[in-house]
Design a protein that fits this description.
By secondary structure, the protein is mainly α. The chain is built from 6 helices and no strands.
Length: 207
């Protein structure tokens, strides 16, 4: 089990590093969009290539960061029932999801898209739009992104099995179980409570 946990930590590290750099793809897409707008307004010139670069970069950032998103448990979840169950039941639900839903889905996508990437690379397929780009780079994001998502799913699976066996920490307790919106609301409530307490402390005592 310790060897599997070591593998899990390596996968976590890989996706964490990738997640830190993917943000630059969003920045690059923003820069391209801004330059495209400036050139179009200033020189009355544009190209479909500029537009396709933007969605190429977005596709790469969205797909390659899928494993990083799973690492931080930021994928959309419907926890109306799950959050009310005991911790072990929640862990078992995750195990079933990773083993019987996430893993087959990722394997199917990788199996279907990998040959397509080689085919498009060999054919040199280009976008049908005038001034469009070659297609294989954006298709390459699919097998890479789903491979990283699959690896992170296995990492989460290892951590949950280790927890059930008493050989690892609570995998659900590494991060806050609240959504970003709930965390913000809680922070605002604490700030309001602090201000109320400060006003009450400074108010003159009633006689």
């Amino acid at each position: 089990m310790q060897a599997l946990l070591k593998l899990s930590r390596a996968i976590d590290w890989l996706n964490a590093q990738i997640g830190r750099w993917v943000i630059w793809l969003i920045f690059a897409a923003t820069v391209v969009s801004a330059l495209n707008a400036i050139v179009r307004k200033a020189f009355n010139y544009s190209s479909n290539g500029f537009l396709e670069v933007q969605w190429y970069l977005f596709a790469w950032s969205f797909l390659v960061a899928a494993g990083y998103t799973l690492l931080h448990r930021e994928h959309v979840r419907i926890d109306v029932v799950n959050s009310r169950l005991p911790k072990r039941a929640q862990v078992w639900i995750d195990i079933i999801g990773f083993a019987f839903f996430l893993t087959p889905l990722c394997l199917v996508v990788i199996y279907l898209t990998t040959p397509m990437v080689f085919e498009k690379y060999a054919s040199g397929e280009i976008s049908g739009n005038p001034g469009g780009l070659i297609r294989w780079p954006v298709w390459l994001a699919l097998p890479i992104g789903f491979t990283l998502l699959l690896l992170q799913g296995w990492s989460e699976l290892i951590k949950r099995i280790a927890f059930l066996r008493g050989q690892g920490p609570d995998p659900m307790g590494r991060l806050s179980d609240q959504s970003a919106e709930a965390e913000l609301a809680e922070a605002l409530r604490r700030e309001a409570d602090a201000k109320t307490a400060a006003l009450a402390a400074n108010a003159p005592q009633a006689r």
